[in-house]
Amino acid sequence: MFRKIGFHPRQPAMCSLLLAGVCFYADAGSGQDMAPNGAMKTPAFEVTSLRPNNSGSESMQWNFSQNGFTARNITVQKLISIAYDINYANEVVGLPRWTDSARLDVEAKMSEEAAAPFRKLNAQQQWKEIQLMLQSLLADRFSLKIHHASQKLPVYTLEIAKAGCKLKESQAEAPLYKAKGHGRIDYQKAQIGDLIYGLSTEPDIDRRVIDRTGLTGRYDIFLEWGTGALGESTSTGPSIFTALEEQLGLKLVAEKVPVDVMVIDQLEPPTPN
User: Which residues contact 185 (CB under 8 A, 6 or more apart)?
Assistant: First the structure.
């Protein structure tokens, strides 16, 4: 299975953080060149190295820097999930079994010509550029070809609980994301979309979360729960489902809805170099 990845749009990127769900504005100096026909060229790394990792470890690490991307003991399945912001295993179809077993060390570096404008971008824009470069790497070294389709999948809808919403409009001057860790969310002057994102990147949530609260304000959101098996409380506190209802007056409802999925048309093992 994919382990979910998460990076809050307002937090800086950090080594070995799990990164995803970021915003990118193409007019903010992305450094992308134009193709002769006027289309935007997909950015790509200048040099990439892919080597087998036979350590036997289950741990994966990855990070981007000011001139490239590095990963240790990573699976191809994880590379795809990073490149395409895929948080859930059932939202990609047709992955060969070897993509979750073979492990690689990846060193990918961009040219100095590409790195100079890249360094002028903010963290969110840099990460989006790295994702596009990873997509190019996957197409070039793994012959990856994909298409998108709609498929009915299990999701959670976030709704107002029977007893009513307990969130209050924030009086803070500006948004502040105090904490986002496993078992805790602490946001100031946040929107429901921020809570949705926080929930969607939690290991205790195994499917996409869709907002059906109808709430449009900004709130101080504090949520704390006991981490553990899905839907189960632990010695450290209630399950995330119970905590949402007791602390915020919200609930997660299991449903099936049409979801955009990525379908693998072609994918081949790379030749190490």
Answer: 179, 195, 198, 199, 221, 222, 223, 224
Predicted model pTM: 0.70
Two tokens, residue 178: 């105090």
CA distance 206 to 124: 25
DSSP count for the chain of H helices, then E strands: 5, 11
| Paired tokens of 77 | 């399945």
DSSP per residue over 196-220, as a string? HHHHHT-TT--S-EEE-S---S-EE
Domains of the chain by residue range: 1-142, 152-258
- CA pair distance 127, 130, nearest whole angstrom: 5
Q: What would the pLDDT profile of 228-265 be if each residue is shown by its tens digit?
A: 545 454 557 888 999 999 999 999 999 999 999 999 99
Nearest residue to 257 via CA among 90, 93, 94, 84: 90
Give the model confidence (pLDDT) of 198-229 as tens digits.
888 787 788 899 999 999 999 999 999 887 54
